[in-house]
Amino acid sequence: MKARTVVISGASSGIGLATARRFAEAGDHVVNLDLAEPAPQDAVGQWIHTDVTDWAGVRRTVDTVVRERGSVDVVIANAGISLRRTFVEMTEKDIRQLMDINVMGVMALWQAAARHMIEARGGVLLATASTNGSAGYPYYADYNASKAAVLALCRSLALELAPHVRTACVSPGYVMTPMQRAEYTDEMFAEVNAKIPANRHADPAEIAEAFFFLASDSARFVTGQQLIVDGGELAGGTASAHGTVFA
Questions:
Q1: Which residues cross the membrane (predicted)?
Q2: pLDDT band at residue 1, thresholds of 50, 70 and 90?
Q3: CA 105 to CA 111: how far, in whole Å?
């Protein structure tokens, strides 16, 4: 398989970094769009300082990549944020910032890439969604809404860009990333593990494998879908086994 140009937002750490490593190991040219420069030991491919909330800037960056590389073959909109708090504690500013990154950032990157993929009559648009987009989770109302929006976007564009450009999302359950671990006390970490049928969090590398599959020819008939990687979390409704604001 010839080397592809793979653009990933938020690839300086966590799921994005693991995904960048997986594609680079396969010989693909990886472009990491992130505000944060990766640590020296985490440098994979080419890093371009990018704010996904800067719509025009994202388009210029993608245009530059295509001009330098000749094409953009796979785009993974992975950049995102979350913050644990009750709905009534959320501020308008915080919600708008989250939506700007988690929804508008995906749309900006996908649109910039889609323009080139339509012309080339080929390409794959992927994004990091979440089990939160398919089930209710207290304390993450804005995050849940943002991931549901990404899933809706994925389904819509699968129809609009068919048959040459595919779309898909990976919807992880609990993944042990620095962002996730920072939200836990040790007691919360153990409690969450106990609610997951697999009895553990996923490793980011396991999510990376899902992206690699969806970008491959093995998934050439997969579009408009989400691949849920959650250790059985949603299978029995365990996602909703949480307290309420009145507890």
A1: none
A2: low
A3: 10
Question: What's the one-letter identity of residue 29?
Answer: H
CB 181 within 8 A of CB 13: no
Catalytic status, residue 184: no
CA–CA dist 239, 247 (Å, integer) = 17
Closest C-alpha to 24, from 43, 49, 38, 9: 43
Given pLDDT bands bounded at 50, 70 and 90, which one contains residue 240?
Answer: low
Q: Say if residue 169's pLDDT is above 80.
A: yes
Q: Where are any strands of DSSP class E within the chain? A: 5-9, 29-34, 46-49, 74-77, 123-128, 165-172, 225-229
Q: Where are the alpha helices (DSSP H) in 161-225?
A: 178-182, 186-195, 204-215
Q: Which residue has the tokens 């396969």?
A: 26
Mean pLDDT of 160-170: 98
- Out of 137, 139, 140, 143, pick the active-site residue: 143
| Structure tokens that stand for 157 in this block | 């564009």
Q: Is the pLDDT of residue 171 over 70?
A: yes
Task: Give the integer Cα–Cα distance in Å for 127 and 132.
Answer: 14
Q: What is the dihedral angle through the alpha carbons of 145, 202, 77, 117, rounded to the nearest 10 degrees?
A: -120
Q: What is the pTM of this model?
A: 0.95
Over residues 236-244, the mean pLDDT reads 62
Element (H, E) at 146: helix 141-160
Query: Which residues on adjacent β-strands are paired with residue 34?
Result: 49
